[in-house]
C-alpha cells in the first residue's frame, strides 16, 4: 500500500464513497461493512407491530390519486392496512379451471424446466402481473394468454407437438377460458363501476324491497308476493355459479313482503313490526328532554371511549416507531430509507373512525396519509388524540354539571305521563271540526273525555224557560262578564300582534270587533280597549269605522252621548262628530267612539255600506200581528260559522281562565315556595338542586301565569318552559294550564277570520234593534248572509250562553211541537 501513488488513493477514496452510498461503510480497521447486514436485520427483527424494510421507494403507480382525492373517491377504509380484495365466485371458478387446464400433459414441455418458476401456471401469473403494472394492454394480454392456453409456454415435439391445435379438447377448453376471461376483465374497473351506477339509478336500484308496489302482484301466501312485472330479475338476481339443479329448487320469483299495508304513510310505518323504529308514542316534552340528554351522554361517552380505544391501540405502535427511528439514526442509516407497514388488522373501523373524528372534515384525508406512510403520520396522530382525550374529559366534566341540572328540572315532569294525553284531548275538544260537530250532532252521539268535564258544554233538547223561546236542541256554556275577560283580551291582542293578523287592516278590524261587538255583547268596561283603539285607529279615514247618523246614542271615551251632526273633514281638519253629553257639547274624533247604544225610540239604525241608515221598526212593519218575543234581558244573534267558532273559543278561553284562577287561589303558598330540600331515597334522581323551584313563584300565581302566557306568545320562552312554570304553580290539572297557549292561538285566528268575513257587525246591528222577535231577526240576518245558521243567545242573569244549529231551510220553533199521534 505504501507503493501506491496519489492517483490510486483518490480512486480508493472514491470507491469507498461509492460503497458507502451503496450501503457499505468502513469499520474501525478500514474494512467495508454492509449497512444492510447485521444491524439492519436487527432493526427489522425488532419490529413487533409491523414490517420494516429498507427497499427502494416504489415509484407512484400510473393514475394514482393524491390522498385528498383518494379520500373523496374511495371514502374511509374499514381496516388498516386494507385487506386484499376477495375474488368473486366467477373469478374463483375461472382461476380453478385455468389451473387445471395449464396442468394438462398436452401443454407440458418435452423436458423438465428444472424450476417451478417456468411452469405454464407461473407464466400465466407473470402475464397478469405485467397487465396489472400497466406494461401490457388488454389486447396484448389476450394475445399472450390465447397462445399460452393453446400451446403452453415452451415448444414441443412428438405426441405433444402442436398443443391445442392437434387436440380438439384442449382447443375447446382454451376458447371457453378466453371467453370467461374477457367477461372477468369487464367485471372490475371503470366499466363495472358504470354498470353498477346505472343499476343503482334505475327504478328498483334505490328502493328497499318493502317499498315495492305489490298491489298488482300475485300473492300465493299472506306473506309472500311475486315480483312486479317490470322488475329486472336478470340484472338484480344474477347468481354466478348457480347450476340448473340449484335453479330448479331455489326461489327466485317470490319475496317476503308481509301483510298488505293501507292508509297513510304513518299508518304504514306503524303497521308492521319490521318497520317499527322504537318511537311509537310520544309521552311528553320532559321525557323527550331526558331522552335527548341520555343520547348526548351516550354520544359523549362513546366518543371518549372510542378515542381511548384508538389511543391504547396506537400507543405501543408509536413507541415501536420512535424506537425504530432512534435505532436507524444510531446505526447511521440515511434518513427516510426505512419503511414501516402495519400488520394486518392493526386498526379496525372503530379506531379509524376515532382518528378521523378528531380531524373533522379532513379526517378521511388523514386516514389516507396514515395508510400510505404510517411511520411519519402515526406519532402526529398519537399526539393529537392524546390532546383530544384530555379536552373531551374536561368537557364531559363540565357537561355533567349541566346534565344534572337539566335532569333535575325535567325529572318531575317526566313522571306526569298523562299530562300530555290530557292536554291533547283538550286541544282536540276545541278544534273547529269538533266544535261544529257538537252543535250539529245529536247530544247522545258525542262523548267527552273526563279531563274536560268543567269546560265541555251541556246538551239540551229545549229550554225550560219559555221566555227564551228556545225549543230546539242546543248546547249551553257557562260564561259571565265577571270572568277574566280582560286577561283573555290582553292575551289575544298579544297573539294577534305577533302573527295572527297579517296586515294593518286586520288589526284595525279586530279592534272594531272588540269595541262594537264583544264589549256591548258581554257588557264589558269600555276603557279596557281605549288604549288599543288609540293606537290602531290613528287615522280617521280608515274603512273599518262606520259613520254614525245624527240622533244615534253612542258610548264614547267621555261617557254616553247623542250624535247631533257629522262634520266632514277639510284640508286642515279631519272628520268630527258633534256629540251632546249631560255636561255639555263636544267635538269628537271617530276613534273616541266605542259603539252605538240601542235606542228606546223608534229611531233605529243599522250599517249599510259604511253608513248608519234608518230601518223600520217592528211596530211599523208588523202592526196587528201576534208575534212571540223573547226576554228583553237576552242577547240574540244569528251568526255564520266563523262567528260561532269565535264565540265558542272565546267562551271556552274565559271559562278556563276563571277555573284556573280559582284553582291557583286554592293552592297553599307552602307548596310552591317552601319545598322540602332533603334528598328522598325513593327518588334518587331528585337532588337538592332539583328540589328547588326553577324560578321564583310570584305571590299572585294567576298574575304570574298571565305574564308567562304573554312571554310564550312573544317567543321569550318555549312550550316546555311554560309547562314547567305551570307545574311549579300547581301540581293539579297542569294539562289545563298547558293547553292555554294553543287555545289562545286558535281563538286569535278565529277572530281574524271573522273580521275578514265582515258580516258580524252588520248582524249585530240588527240584534241591537231590540225588537226581540227571533223570527224577524233571523230573516234580517239571512238577508245579510245566507250562512247565518247558528243561533247564539246570551243570558246574563243565568251566566250562560247557548248555541244551536239552524240551517236556512229549517224552521225556527217559537213553541213546543205537539205530535198529532199523541192522545
Explain this structure.
The protein contains 30 helices and 18 strands. With 823 residues, the protein is of the alpha+beta class. Strands 7-8-18-17-16 form a five-stranded antiparallel sheet. α13 packs across α14, α14 packs antiparallel against α15 and α19 crosses α28.
What is the first-to-last residue Cα distance? 156 Å
Radius of gyration in whole Å, from Cα? Answer: 46 Å
Summed up, the helix count is 30
Q: Strands of the largest sheet, in order across it? A: 7-8-18-17-16
Structural category:
alpha+beta
The biggest sheet, with number of strands, parallel, antiparallel or mixed sense and barrel status, is:
5 strands, antiparallel
Q: Write down the overall geometry.
A: elongated
Overall helicity: 40-55%
Low-confidence stretches: 1-36, 262-278, 620-624, 671-694
Number of strands: 18
Strand content: 5-15%
Output mean pLDDT: 78
Compile the SSE list and pairings.
Elements: H1 6-21, E1 24-26, E2 32-34, H2 38-46, E3 50-53, H3 67-74, H4 89-102, H5 120-132, H6 138-151, H7 168-185, H8 190-200, E4 224-226, H9 233-236, H10 244-249, E5 254-256, H11 265-271, H12 285-330, E6 339-342, H13 349-358, H14 363-372, H15 374-415, H16 418-429, H17 432-440, E7 458-460, E8 474-478, H18 485-500, H19 504-522, H20 530-536, E9 553-556, E10 559-567, E11 576-581, E12 584-588, E13 593-597, E14 604-608, E15 611-615, H21 618-621, E16 635-639, H22 641-665, H23 669-673, H24 688-691, H25 701-714, H26 719-729, H27 734-738, H28 740-757, H29 760-767, H30 774-784, E17 790-795, E18 800-805
Antiparallel strand pairs: 1-2, 3-6, 4-5, 7-8, 8-18, 9-10, 9-13, 10-11, 11-12, 14-15, 16-17, 17-18
Helix pairs in contact: 3-14, 4-7, 5-6, 6-7, 12-13, 12-15, 13-14, 14-15, 18-25, 18-28, 19-28, 22-28, 25-26, 29-30
Amino acid at each position: 500500500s505504501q507503493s501506491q501513488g496519489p492517483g490510486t488513493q483518490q480512486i480508493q477514496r472514491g470507491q469507498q464513497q461509492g460503497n458507502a452510498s451503496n450501503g457499505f461503510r468502513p469499520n474501525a480497521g478500514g474494512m467495508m461493512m454492509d449497512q444492510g447486514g447485521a444491524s439492519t436485520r436487527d432493526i427489522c427483527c425488532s419490529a413487533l407491530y409491523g414490517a420494516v424494510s429498507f427497499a427502494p421507494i416504489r415509484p407512484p403507480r400510473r393514475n394514482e390519486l393524491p390522498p385528498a382525492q383518494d379520500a373523496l373517491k374511495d371514502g374511509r377504509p374499514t381496516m388498516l392496512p386494507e385487506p386484499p380484495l376477495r375474488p368473486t365466485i366467477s373469478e374463483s371458478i375461472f382461476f380453478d379451471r385455468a389451473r387445471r387446464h395449464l396442468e394438462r400433459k398436452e401443454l407440458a414441455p418435452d423436458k423438465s424446466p428444472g424450476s417451478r418458476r417456468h411452469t405454464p401456471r407461473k407464466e400465466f401469473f407473470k402475464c397478469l402481473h405485467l397487465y396489472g403494472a400497466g406494461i401490457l394492454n388488454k389486447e396484448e394480454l389476450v394475445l399472450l394468454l390465447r397462445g399460452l392456453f393453446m400451446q403452453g409456454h415452451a415448444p414441443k415435439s412428438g405426441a405433444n407437438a402442436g398443443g391445442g391445435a392437434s387436440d380438439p379438447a384442449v382447443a375447446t377448453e382454451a376458447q371457453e377460458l378466453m371467453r370467461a376471461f374477457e367477461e372477468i376483465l369487464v367485471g372490475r374497473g371503470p366499466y363495472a363501476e358504470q354498470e353498477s351506477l346505472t343499476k343503482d339509478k334505475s327504478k328498483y336500484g334505490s328502493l328497499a324491497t318493502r317499498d315495492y308496489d305489490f298491489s298488482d302482484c300475485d300473492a300465493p301466501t299472506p306473506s309472500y308476493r311475486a315480483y312486479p312485472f317490470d322488475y329486472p330479475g336478470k340484472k338484480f338476481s344474477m347468481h354466478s355459479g348457480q347450476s340448473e339443479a340449484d335453479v330448479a329448487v331455489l326461489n327466485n320469483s317470490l319475496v317476503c313482503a308481509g301483510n298488505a299495508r293501507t292508509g297513510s304513510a304513518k299508518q304504514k310505518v306503524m303497521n308492521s313490526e319490521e318497520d317499527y323504529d322504537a318511537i311509537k308514542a310520544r309521552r311528553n316534552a320532559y321525557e323527550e328532554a331526558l331522552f335527548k340528554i341520555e343520547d348526548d351522554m351516550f354520544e359523549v361517552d362513546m366518543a371518549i371511549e372510542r378515542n381511548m380505544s384508538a389511543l391504547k391501540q396506537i400507543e405501543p405502535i408509536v413507541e415501536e416507531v420512535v424506537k425504530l427511528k432512534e435505532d436507524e439514526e444510531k446505526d447511521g442509516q440515511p434518513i427516510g430509507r426505512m419503511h414501516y407497514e402495519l400488520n394486518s388488522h392493526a386498526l379496525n373501523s372503530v379506531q379509524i373512525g376515532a382518528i378521523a373524528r378528531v380531524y373533522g372534515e379532513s379526517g378521511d384525508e388523514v386516514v389516507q396519509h396514515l395508510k400510505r406512510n404510517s411511520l411519519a403520520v402515526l406519532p402526529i396522530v398519537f399526539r393529537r388524540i392524546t390532546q383530544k382525550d384530555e379536552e373531551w374529559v374536561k368537557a364531559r366534566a363540565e357537561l355533567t354539571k349541566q346534565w344534572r341540572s337539566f335532569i333535575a328540572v325535567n325529572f318531575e315532569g317526566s313522571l306526569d305521563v298523562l299530562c300530555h294525553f290530557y292536554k291533547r284531548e283538550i286541544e282536540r275538544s276545541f278544534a273547529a271540526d269538533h266544535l261544529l260537530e257538537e252543535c250539529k250532532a245529536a247530544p247522545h252521539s258525542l262523548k267527552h273525555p273526563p279531563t274536560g268535564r268543567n269546560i265541555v258544554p251541556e246538551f239540551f233538547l229545549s229550554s225550560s224557560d219559555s221566555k227564551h223561546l228556545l225549543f230546539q236542541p242546543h248546547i249551553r256554556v257557562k260564561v259571565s262578564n265577571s270572568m277574566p275577560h280582560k286577561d283573555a283580551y290582553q292575551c289575544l291582542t298579544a297573539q294577534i300582534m305577533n302573527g295572527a293578523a297579517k296586515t294593518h287592516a286586520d288589526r284595525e278590524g279586530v279592534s272594531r270587533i272588540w269595541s262594537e261587538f264583544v264589549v256591548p255583547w258581554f257588557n264589558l268596561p269600555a276603557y279596557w280597549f281605549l288604549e288599543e283603539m288609540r293606537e290602531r285607529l290613528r287615522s280617521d279615514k280608515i274603512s273599518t269605522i262606520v259613520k254614525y247618523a245624527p240622533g244615534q246614542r253612542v258610548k264614547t271615551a267621555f261617557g254616553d252621548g247623542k250624535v247631533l251632526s257629522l262634520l266632514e273633514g277639510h284640508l286642515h281638519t279631519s272628520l268630527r262628530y258633534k256629540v251632546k253629553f249631560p255636561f255639555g257639547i263636544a267635538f269628537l274624533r271617530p276613534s273616541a267612539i266605542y259603539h252605538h247604544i240601542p235606542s228606546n225610540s223608534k229611531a233605529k239604525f243599522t250599517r249599510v255600506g259604511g253608513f248608519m241608515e234608518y230601518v223600520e221598526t217592528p211596530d211599523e212593519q208588523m202592526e196587528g200581528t201576534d208575534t212571540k218575543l223573547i226576554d228583553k234581558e237576552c242577547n240574540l244573534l244569528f251568526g255564520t260559522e266563523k262567528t260561532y267558532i269565535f264565540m265558542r273559543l272565546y267562551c271556552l278561553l274565559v271559562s278556563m281562565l276563571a277555573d284556573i284562577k280559582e284553582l291557583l287561589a286554592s293552592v297553599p303558598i307552602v307548596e310552591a315556595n317552601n319545598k322540602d330540600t332533603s334528598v328522598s331515597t325513593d327518588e334518587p334522581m331528585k337532588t337538592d338542586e332539583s328540589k328547588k323551584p326553577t324560578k321564583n313563584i310570584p305571590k299572585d300565581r294567576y298574575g304570574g301565569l298571565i305574564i308567562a302566557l304573554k312571554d310564550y306568545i312573544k317567543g321569550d320562552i318555549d312550550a316546555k318552559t311554560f309547562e314547567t312554570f305551570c307545574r311549579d304553580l300547581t301540581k293539579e290539572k297542569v294539562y289545563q294550564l298547558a293547553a292555554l297557549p294553543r287555545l289562545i292561538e286558535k281563538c286569535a285566528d278565529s277572530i281574524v277570520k271573522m273580521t275578514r268575513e265582515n258580516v258580524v257587525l252588520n248582524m249585530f246591528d240588527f240584534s241591537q234593534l231590540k225588537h226581540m222577535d227571533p223570527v224577524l231577526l233571523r230573516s234580517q240576518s239571512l238577508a245579510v248572509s245566507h250562512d247565518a245558521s247558528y243561533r247564539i243567545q246570551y243570558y246574563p242573569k243565568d251566566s250562560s250562553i247557548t248555541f244551536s244549529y239552524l240551517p236556512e231551510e229549517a224552521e225556527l220553533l217559537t213553541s213546543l211541537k205537539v205530535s198529532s199521534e199523541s192522545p
